[in-house]
Amino acid sequence: MAADTRDRILDALEKLLLVSGVAQVTLEGVAAEAGVSKGGLLYHFPSKEALLAAMVRRLGERSDQQLEDAVAGGTTVTEFYLQIPDANESEELSLFRSIIAALRTVDGQHDEIQKAVTHVMRSWDKGLQTEIADPIQAEIIRLVGDGLYLAAMLGLPQPDPELHRQVVERLRP
């Protein structure tokens, strides 16, 4: 039950961040959106910073699980990182919302949140660096993957499928 409440609170936080941004989010507002008392929220998250950091850590756990599942299914880390996200799939949409909400928390004023975002982003790099011996190649793949993901999140035009296939083929170790 506690895990359900935590997730409900974190989902409410994400929703409010997407609507109004970190400066406008209050503990009271998150509690109301989640349908819990402020005391119930504080039981799980003693401060706004702890709440925001927990949301970022949950994002990391979700994305790590997606990568683990993909690799177990035979996808390389490179292929996973260079895929064009499917904005119509509910799991992808959930991750999109989490990423956008997390990025809205990075305002330079919250040390714990900044560390959590940095940790999540660097953990994604580790898989590429483990798979690819050349650090320059790993960084190029990370940057291309970040661009593809950002374009999908913002609804920007996606590359031609054949051109995308050729890019992946060229960058694959």
TrEMBL record:
Keywords: DNA-binding, Transcription, Transcription regulation
Residue intervals of the HTH tetR-type domain: 3-63
The UniProt record lists the keyword Transcription regulation: yes
InterPro entries on file: Homeodomain-like_sf, HTH-type_TetR-like_transc_reg, HTH_TetR, Tet_transcr_reg_TetR-rel_C_sf, TetR_CgmR_C
Single annotated GO MF: DNA-binding transcription factor activity
Domain of life according to the entry: Bacteria
DNA-binding region per Swiss-Prot/TrEMBL record: 26-45
Protein name (record): TetR family transcriptional regulator
